[in-house]
């Protein structure tokens, strides 16, 4: 669907991660010249990738070398984990906010035109809202991960105002899909897949009625591909499905897709969770000509297929 | 005016600075037991101060020792300067955001109940607004100083949500008064005083019609004193005069107060400046029973007196 990026040189930072692998595929398909950067190289470098650079993004010389000569950078690396960031905010600021902004400053000094940042539509808003959240909705993140993402967005916006490089933060809702791991407590779909397949009890905080916006990782990748051709002013753009489903809905869909029931272990509600988080995605349609293509049923079926194919080897 | 703080133990971090000296006076007058912390001790420790600790707030052991046994902390230290912060955002994040949040975490670990932070109502909003800005107005700071203040506010709000210590950020408009220096390009009133007294030309960006909210430092100090007795939930509170005046108005008032005209050197407008920044101060009245008491004319007259008394020794 994306307009071709014929010859555009794009560096993907965090190329080996869950979203990164899908973004690399999407960029290669769109004819971009992709350089990949991650801590480790995969066993097989994806077809079409010009170069796979192995290194740590907190090493400034690595970022400087990898970003030289690039037109755009897709920044997906994150040294933060939602579960642990709350306990040491000063370290979270250093390893997450400072490191990301430093990488952006290095890219700007390298002459990069466009810097795309993976922000978090699931955490930066923080507040309840009956209507889908627009990008100008108030932001009151309830965990350090969300506060850090928001702080990074603001520094990137400032780079867009003060300097040459354009910056766009994509506020991604709850991404799910093939390749998402369950052990970092980041994805409800991945956790449900694992509990379904292994027959273990899945802990649920509250009654499972909280509403979230789940977006398929292939659609997220297409949003980044579209954003690589973005020519408007620096901005922030929601990337989600635009629709809300409950946690229990998701669990039922996973059970249907795997054919295996999930035992639920209901635990007391966590007051820091918001009841409802759904993104308004009209800005993405206007600015990126992007809309999600994969239904929740199809996406979860594809994800279940990936999990079931990994049996029993994994 | 402030309710007595009889016996409440308060640490003032940055006690030797422009605002800090006024806050210390106000706290002593309100019967608080004041510990002062700053890089250097003044020639004469202010009357009523229990202890003056000399040390750097970036030294964690200094903050830990000074905050032990305190009920409240007034945090006025800032390692950022508006003029230089834009050039190295990563360093600004480290020295300003990380250092401040680390100090707050140390205070929380010390058992401090209430942490008051001096934020910046003059920079965190960033946007134009015909009406005075309320605390829930959108925040789009246009410089690194404002982005950092906003980021710190969010981390402090999170500490208030997740941990024991209550946090309040006072968003101070444009403070002015006795003791404000002119050499750090922070205060228009101080700069005008200096140009008026020295007879040098004062650079003005644009036509001098930008509107700002100037608040007398004695009123700011009273706001911190009132906030030391605050018992509501963690929050953000505007501290300003609630009224806007133009840059040219301020210059005329300074000329009247000093009796010496100021030569103006008009320079091209800076696009990063907002045209108008005036704070709505009703939340401060509700939550702190605080309103500003000193008129602009009286405050500028007092400030001019301070400048004129310093002649010719300085």
From TrEMBL, chains A, B:
SUPFAM superfamilies given in the database record: NAD(P)-binding Rossmann-fold domains (SSF51735)
InterPro entries listed in its UniProt record: Epimerase_deHydtase, Lipid_A_modif_metabolic_enz, NAD(P)-bd_dom_sf
Name of this chain's protein: NAD-dependent epimerase/dehydratase family protein
Superkingdom per UniProt: Bacteria
Domain NAD-dependent epimerase/dehydratase: 10-240
Classification via Pfam families: Epimerase
PANTHER family, alphabetized: BIFUNCTIONAL POLYMYXIN RESISTANCE PROTEIN ARNA, UDP-D-APIOSE_UDP-D-XYLOSE SYNTHASE 2
